[in-house]
Amino acid sequence: MLKKLMLIDGNSILYRAFFALPLLSNSTGVHTNAAYGFAMMLVKVLEEEKPTHVLVAFDIGKTTFRHKDYESYKGKRDKTPSELAEQIPLVYELLEAFSIQTYGQAGFEADDIIGTLAVEAEREQVSTVIVSGDKDLFQLIGDHVTVLHTRKGVTEMDRYDEAALRERYGLAPSQIVDLKGLMGDPSDNIPGIAGVGEKTALKLLAKFPTVEEIIAHPDAFSGKKLQEKLREFADDAILSKKLATIHTEVPLPFSFDELELRDIQKDKVASVFSRLEFRTLIDRIDKSPLFSSSDNEETEVLVEEHEYVQITPENQGEWEKIFHYSPLALQIETDIDNPHHAGITGIALSHKDDNLFVPLEVAKDWGPFQSWLQDNQQKKVVYDLKRCKILLEREGMKVAGFSFDVLLAAYVLNPSETKLELSDLALQQSIGYLPSDDEAYGKGAKKRPLALEPLAVHVTKKSAKLLALYHRYEEQLEKNDLTKLLYELEMPLASVLADMEMIGVKVDKSKLEELGITFKEKIERLEKEITDLAGTSFNINSPKQLSEILFEKLGLPVIKKTKTGYSTGADVLEKLAPQHEIVEKILHYRQVGKLYSTYIEGLKKEISPDGKIHTRFNQTIAATGRLSSTEPNLQNIPIRLEEGRQIRQVFVPSQDDWSILAADYSQVELRILAHLCRDPILQKAFLEDRDIHTQTAMDVFAVEAEEVSSLMRSKAKAVNFGIVYGISAFGLSQNINIPQKEAKEFIDRYFATYPNVRQFMDDVVVDARKQGYVTTLLNRRRYLPDINASQFNARSFAERTAMNTPIQGSAADIIKNAMVNLSREMDKRKLKSKMLLQVHDELIFEVPAEELEEMKSLVRVQMENAVQLSVPLKVDVNIGKSWYEAK
DNA sequence: CAATGCTGC
DNA sequence: TCAGAGCAGCATTGG
């Protein structure tokens, strides 16, 4: 194959990328803009130029031979910004992953290394392309050497050969040094001739081809001043020319052939891209011909070896090889996502290089495997403990001894990480390439089940990665002091949640249908009234059609706009309500419509054959540490308005004579705030169990308890909410509909009343700026890469997050701890009561009549003592025949 | 699939 | 000046 050499001016491209892109950083706060730009450029030039040999040359060391001639060389250059310097190792890693050689040599610049190789290539007639943002390199252009010069951004480039150079500057490549000798280069502190810029220099060079000839004939040029300068600065020009001349005889310790570009390994590159969070580039890997492995035999060879043994009734001896090791990796594959409905398609076990594939039928009636599963001493490393437990138990298999959950580990290490699929984790941790489920099964319409053999390959590949991830994560958890959070909170909780999900909540289906009928009647009535008032029938659910009616047909005033048109949000409609009776009906229509579609129809769809709803608690979604609930979401069942609250009537105990017990923390977030900032007035208020909003109103408005009006209390309440969310005057003014000025006064008065709160808020932001993350009571950690951003918006958001996360996250820690403790205690006491749901600050149980009194006290005690704070925690317990009645 | 809107804490 | 309340899930519209 014909050789093609590519020489990349590393420093030049790096600087270019750094200044061309905003100061991006990834989720752990590492700046990555220059590395990102470099990677973009690299992928582009490799794809387009298809070089066979590549070198990236770097400047290393401070002084070069040029300093001997001119000690101020590059004297004025600012020190490399630290945000850029810290990215240099990233670029080396990147190039390493691409298997691209890098080189720098003390005493020489990258230019000289490139020049030496370019001259050699020219001599050997090897086609060569130089990539740089520096025009100096144009002097190397030759018959076989061209320069790609960055034009705009990082990926737009101009190609210069001799003709292009002549067209653009009217110069031959050799004259670039003359140009530079005349005009100098401020960035390198090369003087040139004072007062001569590019334009004059080009004019001079049009008459004589070299600096030497120009300064020998100053009189040949018009203009007295110019003539003087040519005489006065002749020496500077000669020196400048010398400085600009690239040295092409650097003694290099390698030969041309050693620069041959080897096959680029997809997994290595993907792993680095993933760790740096270069998402668009990751996507590009699959499409890029650079990484194609199908039509290239050599890359085929580089695919990691993967072997497995399928267990059959005949070869169970294979099991003897590994079963006594502990831990083993256990991976369970399913047909669909939801573990409450999924079927197991296969089970894989791994230890070192031994991978076993166990079909479900074999697993189920295979004694040694079953006893291994149940043995608490036989440790299992899994991905998603909760899911594994549910899947196995639904197949009637008992399981114990989960020692490590790779998914939960990845989450506690960085709860903001959204790419938590096993294949993502393998990439992020550089433990080799693992196909994603989408790759294995296809996605969207192309999704299809796998035949037995490819299925076995896929699932054993997954299990094979688990132990490597376990070792990585264990070390990282230790380093970040997160082991307790994982082992003592999140993993035990996963087990508790698995049980809660499997038990499920009983639904009174006839009640649900009954409510559905009344809601439907209301909707139809409202729909008729609204279309009558509007004088035309239209889709009330369409904001577009609705705004046409309200703001064009009826001419109501526009209060707020959205990106696409007029806003018809509830806040806007509430302001418009006095103007036209239709508005109120629309609000009511929306409210009941929501109830019907989301809560009546939506819940109906989720009822399982056992008459229960089995929600799924997601433990790795919310960056604060909260849980979330899906399919269906049982954490947003209506309560505020009576009409919606009735939905709660359908959630009932699973047996007659049982009750629903609901226990909720009272003001847990404000109590946490009082604890964290140790404000004496707030602490006292909680110690005395005062109504906190009334107390705040008393303190802020400086009045006695009896003088607090309901308006004052509700304003104080809004301020308290704002404090928890990371307050802004604007946010508060919007929320309670007062002028911003007034909101600011409230906030100022609040902070004046509780100075420790302000101190705490300030401290937590300063802390976040220093450390790059904030923490919660149980040491949960959330990184805030934007905390030092220059964009006001991004930074403000990070600051509010810094204030909110320790509060919301600590509340999550507390209730999680209570759940784990409570579950243990209920087991210990062999209670029949079941924990069913968690709604952030509330736990729901079903309880047989004979356990009611015991549970009331047990739940309260465990919740109130989940952690010890400097203020008491308070829990309200309520009991009823449905969730609705437990209020 | 994005935008909008609404439900919860 | 600009934008602007913390954390979620789900239904609907309309491209």
TrEMBL record:
Its quaternary organisation is:
Single-chain monomer with multiple functions.
Name the enzyme group at the top EC level.
transferase
The reactions it catalyses are: DNA(n) + a 2'-deoxyribonucleoside 5'-triphosphate = DNA(n+1) + diphosphate
Q: What is its EC number?
A: 2.7.7.7
Can you give the residue ranges of the DNA-directed DNA polymerase family A palm domain?
644-851
Keyword set, alphabetical order: DNA damage, DNA repair, DNA replication, DNA-binding, DNA-directed DNA polymerase, Exonuclease, Hydrolase, Nuclease, Nucleotidyltransferase, Transferase
Similarity comment: Belongs to the DNA polymerase type-A family.
Q: Does the keyword DNA repair apply?
A: yes
One GO molecular-function entry:
DNA-directed DNA polymerase activity
Matches recorded under Gene3D superfamilies: 3.30.70.370, 5' to 3' exonuclease, C-terminal subdomain, 5'-nuclease, Ribonuclease H-like superfamily/Ribonuclease H, Taq DNA Polymerase, Chain T, domain 4
Query: Which Gene Ontology biological process is one annotated for this entry?
Result: DNA-templated DNA replication
Which NCBIfam families did the record assign? pola, PRK05755.1
Top-level taxon: Bacteria
SMART domains per UniProt: 35EXOc (SM00474), 53EXOc (SM00475), HhH2 (SM00279), POLAc (SM00482)
To which species is this protein native? Shimazuella alba
Q: Know the name of this protein?
A: DNA polymerase I
- Report the transmembrane regions from the record: none
The keyword DNA repair belongs to this UniProt entry's keyword annotation: yes
Per UniProt, residues of the 5'-3' exonuclease domain are 3-262
